[in-house]
Amino acid sequence: MNQSETKFPENFLWGGATAANQMEGGYLEGGKGLNIADVLPGGKERLKVLKEPGFNFEINEKKYYPNHEGIDFYHRYKEDIALFAEMGFKVYRMSIAWSRIFPNGTELEPNEEGLAFYDRVFDELHKYGIEPVVTISHYEMPLNLVKEYGGWRSREVITFFERYVNAIFNRYKDKVKYWMTFNEINSALHFPIMSMGFSIEKGEDEYQPIFQAFHHQFVASSLAVKACHEMIPGAKIGSMIISAPVYSYDCNPKNVLYAMEEERIFNYFCGDVQVRGEYPSFAERFFKKHNISLDIRDGDLKLIKEHRVDYIGLSYYMSLTEKKDKTGLDLTPGNLLKGVKNPFLKASDWGWEIDPTGLRITLNKLYDRYQVPLFVVENGLGAYDKVEEDGSINDDYRIDYLRSHIEAMREAIGDGVDLMGYTSWGCIDLVSASTGEFSKRYGFIYVDKHDDGSGTMKRMKKKSFYWYKGVIESNGEVLLKSIRR
Prior knowledge:
- The chain contains 15 helices and 14 strands.
- The protein is of the alpha/beta class.
- It has one domain: Glycosidases (TIM Barrel), CATH 3.20.20.
- The chain has an eight-stranded parallel barrel with strand order 1-2-3-4-5-7-11-12, surrounded by five helices.
- α7 (156-172) packs parallel to α9 (207-231) and α9 (207-231) crosses α12 (300-306).
């Protein structure tokens, strides 16, 4: 099929994506309890700090915590949703803050103020005909579960998660029909602190606790799938993974094999369990190599097999290039990952390599492997934006990035991939998860908020706002390099 013949499906789900902990603010309002994100300091060294053993999960008065205020969506959601509607969003991917619903995580009854807040948000979305796509747990969990139970190290957290899931499914069964369980679940291979609620202790073998916590999350995910299908007939519930194709540095078979092994454990391990419903064949050798022994209880594997996700949500920002021996080679930063610098690719302001062809490769690989619908729920360019004297923000670099990736999706559809939709990450500027910065901007909408905490919170439309509006209006037929305001 030629490019000119390939079209996006008529029911393609165009929209944008955010996360509660990166934009809501109101961190102690409405009965909300503290969560993991509330104790993560801002700044370029965030991930380095989180990777060090002994993180104490306490707020330090000498540090700045940008997530506390975010972009104040908690109070400004009507204004923001109106802007999403102006762009023509069909869907809006968001998350629910677990600690708004169960402040400590252990309560027997949910917090009504928290439930009512999301009622208002969903009602506002539906007023404009926008369908919410809701992530149940997006890089945050009640801080009490971290301190008292060690996060997902503990099997007991499954019970608390199931109670949370049942509460939101019961409350929003008539308002939400697209769900996802854990955001970027495979990210824990490198940074368990955000998604699993624990850090690796000094001298501890990191693989054992991480893979045991994975098992607990797989059980919890299957319980959520079961509950969703029973409580909300017709709803769809998916998994969500970071997806980054892994290229070999060269054609040396040793490097090709190394790249394959890296890609399997990172890109496919979680997907195999959540989509296929069983641990992959390569896991046995990996577990043996790393002395991993899982506590799997009676009924766990049956539950995982019988209650599998309906689709795969994925984030795609970059590809990864690997070499078994990296001595003397330049490494490039990325979305929680580091690989060998690829000489064929340019990079963003933050060093993330830009590879739209990698998105087409990823979509084809995932669909070939799983044969379930795919949904690109995160993709975007973090960049420095400048507000001109006349108030304009000319982000042609963002338009170029998004255009090339949307074109790659269109080609993947032509390849036969079943693609549900696309929600560009950070459709409105928010706090970066990896660095805690406001200056790393992704949005179509500029928010006047800065790394030192200053700013008016004023919302301003960037050039990309008008471009993306045209893309949605034409169902992807208009992929212009730029347009006039």
